[in-house]
Please model this.
Amino acid sequence: MLNIALPKGRLADRVLERLALAGCGGASLIEGSRRLVVEDPEGNLRYFLVKPSDVAVYVLHGAADVGIVGRDILLETKPDVYELLDLKLGACRMVVAGPPGAGEGVRTRVATKYPNIARKHYADSGREIDLIALNGSIELAPLVGLSDVIVDVVETGGTLRDNGLIILEEIIPISARLIANIASAKFKAEGIDDIMKALSREGN
Amino acid sequence: MEQAKVERTPAFLPLEAYTMRLRALFEGRGYRRVRPPRFEDYALLLDNKNFLGTDRILTFMDPGGRMLSLKPDTTLSLASEVSDDILPCAEKLYYTDEVARYDPENLSYRITEQVGVELIGREDAFSAVEAADLALRSLCATGEESVLDISHLGFVKGLLAGADLGAPVEREVLGAIHSRSAHNLCGILDSAGVENGHRASILELAAIHGPFNEQLARAGALVRGPYMEEAFSELEALGASLSPGPGQRLNLDFSVVGDLDYYNGLVLRGYIKGIPGMVLGGGRYDNLMAKLGKKSTAIGFAVYLHRLENSLAGAPPATDILLLYPKDCDPAALLREAERLGQKGLTVRCEREDGDFSGLRFNETVYFKGVKPDA
Model:
């Protein structure tokens, strides 16, 4: 039995679609279901939906053998897992954003829910910052004077534009990744390889 | 006639029994048990925090004003005690030890037990073979399905040196190899403008993980120069010498990387089916020895018993006799009765008869009726 942790939301739908196209059993059962755990009829795969930021935790601790998680979470938390595949789904960008001209002072105030990514980005270019860690609605921070800029994930940039913010710097592209528990990869290699092949079929 | 006293062998819990098997294994190969100090000099640990993998160390000041720590690792302590001179004869040591490590998930320190071996002072093909063989047998002794992954940092370093990546890119490349991210690795090599020949070799190195002797041929095709030849020769000796036990697999896996500042050759990682993390880790750490000013080489590994706890825990054995006594029982007579039953080889637990025994595990209940005589 291979345990697969999927992130709740649109990304799970797209991953399940790809798995179903590849003939992976049970992928259609989870749609619209209120069950937290769904097994395929053949008994080979078990899916469960979790908060996106928790997928890596489930995989790291072996509760899930594999999982789908955004590269932003991996870069921020650096779990000791295998990152086997770039699914090329959920494409977006990690950026520095703010009002035009922001962040050009000696010491920039940066609001973010990715403190490790933000710290590394500015340290790599030798710039000192004051970091403000937030959990959500990051775009609000520069609008009310909490910060000069934000470091956040951006998809279309629509929310930024609607609030008079622009992308000041691009940090790194982000997309969904297939991760695996290192020990699981030793004992369930065949099953994990099958999932890799199934998820590779579209988009790569 | 007095009944012969029965010598009872303690019923070890599975984890205890496993530790005893390891001790027998190591002593059977001539390894001497050592008892590492409980406390270690804080300065030594801080100076080598990269080897330890943490700078969160429990410290305190002793009455003499010296900063000491509950050590998070045993190897560093043993290595620091080795003579600075070349040893006339190899030291073969094993230990069972408790270490204090910071648990970032629980935001607290945890005391965990480990059993390990250190082979100090001999650098030859056999020392690597012996260490890897002991690691294989240590995993086999659990009685569970297991995998031992072997890598060689000399081989990896030799290949990367040829590409002349520079330290920052080399670190990124090693990170991508460790996480088996072929896609990230391609991106790093493209960004660094690595030439096609070296690019192909690095990608091939990253793809080598699987049954040892099958993957060895792929590794052989990558050998360039004397440094890699020497490393490959050591891997060949391992492939020719090691025999995995029943339910065991031996892998060559270059995604196993250690800190290059400390490890320089063989690296070992052991896994048990059903346990999410590594249960055995080690390798050749000549670089650490050199950093400590020692002329000796060293290789070793540890088995992390706390990772095996749930898998080998088992339930404590049931008591043979629950001996129930009344409130006004004669204590001396009760003690004699418990001793009499014990001499038959039975385990006996004495409890007052009005207690709640629902939480106890026992095989038989006996009522003791001896009443204390009036004064």
Summary: The CA atoms of residues 208 and 288 of chain B lie 27 Å apart. The first strand of chain B starts at residue 32 and ends at 33. DSSP finds 14 helices and 15 strands in chain B. Chain B touches chain A at residues 145, 147, 149, 179-181, 183-184, 249, 251, 255, 271-273, 275-278 (CB under 8 Å).
